[in-house]
User: Fold this.
Amino acid sequence: MKQIRTIVSCLLAAVIVVTASAQPGKNGKLKYVEASNLTLCGQLMPGNPNPYHRVDTVRFKGFTEAENLQVRESSGISVAFKTNSRCIKVRTIYGQCQFPTNTTGIAARGYDLYMRDKGGQWLYAESACKSDKHLLLGETLDLISDLDGSMHECLLYLPLFAEVDSLQIAVDNDAVIEPMANPFRYRIGVFGSSFTHGTSTSRSGMTYPAQFSRLTGLQLLSLGCSGHSKLQPYFADVLAAARVDALLFDSFSNPSPKEIKERLFPFIERVQKAHPGIPLIFQRTIRREGRNFSVKTERYEAARIATADSMMALACKRYRDVYYIYPDATASDHLSTVDGVHPDDYGYTLWARSIVGQVLPILEKYGIK
Assistant:
């Protein structure tokens, strides 16, 4: 099946290359540019054979089948470019895709476009996704078709739960499209759970790492793996090999209390050996609304948090450059959830805002401003 998918992807890519310069658009012919020839932001490991994969799974081993797919998905990666086109469209060759029930199709398999306003802030522009029955046919997706023709700085977030083999951005044939400087500073890796991956967001630009980056101008490099952030040693190997200035962890949302006790210190030691002297900032897991009336969930979540709190109290004393912070994704009315586990967009906004004041002072100690 995988071989068939690869052959189909190659054939579709060939068709795109042949026809790219002759596609009629609403405003005339279109020209297509491969996104990797522009500026890719949020890449944990630049230089992967597939630039839209977060981890090279040929180089790094140990992943389960589910993890192997997730680290190939493009969650957290965005494309920065300038264009004066009156339209922006995209055409994608997908590999494998996931279809989560608690995340919109736009977030999981579509695109989320932002543009800079006159004040320098990133402002939402458009988001869209092909219907599932047209998803794998290599059809062009219209994002926006009535821009004013002036030069715009654009930031396009890639799908959260899809593997992208090729992404081409289409603009008017007579328009300019060019890479822009990375709008974000430094390289701060983020390893985490479905929360970091972006589960239950409505669009890919609403994950808490994406929102944090737009709020602060600091570049977060997301390695969120839904259900699989359990302090595994092979994930530590990936983080050890990454070029980073700091590391942020959402690593207590998936493991059991037993796994936290057994794995935390070896995980820290493995990462610190590769990155001596950089801050390792661990986040306590957020409060899940499913605890409100479920006795079983309440007991388990309380035990998990208590274990993480006690282990991190020891870790902060035992290891230099290790920190523990407290995110908050809970609205005052307790309605900022989708399924009792994951926040909605507003919950992720609360999360991003809640850690800004905790993370920035830590980073400033290391000259990261």
